[in-house]
Amino acid sequence: MSGNNMRDIKRRVRSVTSIEHITNAMKLVSAAKLRRAKATFENTHEYFHYVTECIEEIFNNTREIPTKYLLGDREIKTTCYVIITSNRGLAGSFNANVIKQAQAEINADWEKPYIIAVGSKGRDYFKRRDYEISGEYLSPPENISFVETRDISKPIIKLFNDGEIDEVMLIYTSFISSLEQRVKTVTLLPLDLEREPGIAPLSRPVEYEPSVEEVFNYLIPKYVEIMIYGAIVESATCEHAARRIAMENATDNATQMIDDLNLYYNRARQAAITSEITEIVSGADALK
Amino acid sequence: MADSIRLEIITPEKLFYDHKVELVIVRTKFGDEGFMAHHAWACKLLAIGEIWVQEAGSKDFKIGAISGGFIDVKHNITIFTDVAEWQEEIDIERAQERLDYAKQYFETHKQAESDEDEFLKADITLRKAVTRLSVAGGGSRRKR
What we know:
The complex is a heterodimer.
Chain A: H1 2-61, E1 79-84, H2 94-107, E2 114-118, H3 120-128, E3 133-137, H4 146-162, E4 167-175, E5 181-189, E6 207-209, H5 212-287
Parallel strand pairs in A: 1-2, 1-4, 2-3
Antiparallel strand pairs in A: 4-5
Helix pairs in contact in A: 1-5, 4-5
Chain B: E1 5-10, E2 15-28, E3 31-36, E4 42-55, E5 61-73, E6 77-80, E7 84-86, H1 92-108, H2 116-136
Parallel strand pairs in B: 1-6
Antiparallel strand pairs in B: 1-2, 2-3, 2-4, 4-5, 5-6, 5-7
Helix pairs in contact in B: 1-2
């Protein structure tokens, strides 16, 4: 009986060991990918503020800007949700967190949502729950280029201009550190700009060419494009960070489990030896 | 030597260029325009075209291709564009390929009866390809 038990334990040790190998390999791969994604992320992040600053500057210094993109220009009815998840699982609660937040936002909104899913996990979730997915983008986010993300942002801007959607919300995971990521909801359009009295007007007049209006109309869609690109890059970084942590935990658990199983195995082995000795001794005693 | 001014060229992916320059020539919506230090403050939209940069202390120009964007001239000059390439980085084969594609498109399609977006796209493709090839071949401006 104990021999049987020993064989079972041994088999389990073997299977857990191979799981440990896999999770460990995945951890290393994620760590390498994270490093690469982080470099891209840091590169892009540094220049993000630039376009926003430019918009604010124009806003604060001129009067004749078009109000089309600003908050309060029209009533907000249909909201477009851009939900950024990953294409692959095994990243802990990475996708679940984004989806939970998105679902909460959609539940709070009684108009029919307009969903654009970036990443297959989010798409699958909302498709299963019979939401209409108006746009989906499933290419791997690691090496996406800015030009490619324009395929996502162009239709959004067009829909906004046509009045099909009145608000654009971006839901993605923001990178705080390798150990911490947080889901963030950003309203891309309409812009909520306020004339801040604190900012001093520019000391010299600025020439806008062809016109303030055109510069502004160029900057806003650019802002949307850049924000979406940035969010995808950031989300990819978070995905790898989350997966690395998840795989590290899995590896730790597997090691722990192997230790425990080895202990049980040794106990079972000891028990088997003891019982064998007892049998021999009692057999010898009987012969006396 | 003329005064120099700091020029930054930013793409969404990286800081493409950051250096003191004497003169930078870009194509605005209304034509080529040069900017030097102490220029009046301006914010101008750019067309697809060449960029010529004369670095401080240098006689030669660096030539590149940029795909639109805008230039912001204040204490520094900042150019924000979607894609930027220097002369030596241009993939000539690919540019030629795109040029052939665009030419073919215009031969087979008439503006009135084709999709507006696609027509615009082909037009942009053509402009980009022409710019790239011209930059790769030494730029359209005669060297001084």
